[in-house]
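Quick start: load a record and inspect it. Here is Valine dehydrogenase (NAD+):
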Amino acid sequence: MTEGVFGRDSGHEQVVFCHDAHTGLRAIIAVYSTALGPSLGGTRFHPYATESDALDDVLALSKGMAYKNALAGLDLGGGKAVIIGDPKTLKSEALLRAYGRFVQSLGGRYITACDVGTYVADMDVIARETRFVTGRSRDEGGAGDSSVLTAFGVFQGMRASAEHLWGSPELRGRRVGVAGVGKVGHILVGHLVEAGAEVVVTDVAEEAIDRVRRAHPGVETVPDADALVRADLDIYAPCALGGALDDATVDVLRARIVCGAANNQLAHAGVEKQLDEKGILFAPDYLVNSGGVIQVSDELHGFDFERAKRKAGTIYDTAKAVFALAADEGVPPVTAADRLAERRMAELPRLRSIHTG
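Running the structure step on this input writes:
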């Protein structure tokens, strides 16, 4: 990518704009790095206000995937895709298959999976046009819903955070606020309830709240995310879209730990320092939410859920290592996590740093 094309220098290897007039498909696929292998990352289907907004999102998300896959110990690079539009009205078999052909055209440099607005059934449709897709249904030989191990990994990250801050991974009696109880959040709530935590939730979708209430009647609800961050919490878990942690939120946040499933939780550079200065332990999002990519990456080798779950369980140990490095070097955990990921990408490059499929 060059500044002349996009007005920015992001360091990405490749960005592809995809358009199919017949189906209404408008998509962007971004490959940040293939130094460790083909880039893997989900496809987000979202009604972005502008193409520029979609581009900003896919660039940030794909870079995050490169760091996430490196820190998770996977031999995969980082990529991401976005489809522009409302999935409730625009999604169709023809559109998904057209998108699958664009993925196929990259020859394996990018492997897709589920993300916000896309589901296992969608991956099965996309797979009719490309072999470079994961997160397919069990009937199709896939890993199924990656939300399962995403939530499990976030839960392990919470346990590691609790041990680092309070000396024990025990979450019983801890008050945890979950913002966003969709695909990942509602599974995370189940883990927390089972662990004996007191759970408070919020979501913009009333049906998501209703599902949690039916499954866990003892869970408390609040009207919105603003009320949640101001609540008396031990742990705050952002599990919706990115940018949840901005200056205003940090100012009023009362939780001692932030650990959630959302990608790119820091609204801008410097927020991690504000959290650190307030004594709030931030578990880097791309570390703790890597259970999903661990799950779908296992599909590339013939999916075995127990093997994938064991691998996702190592998020606990990786988080402890990140917190220890941060303490030793006097830096926020995000900086420590970045250093570990960058070290792996630098020390273990392939003979050809650009994967050609």
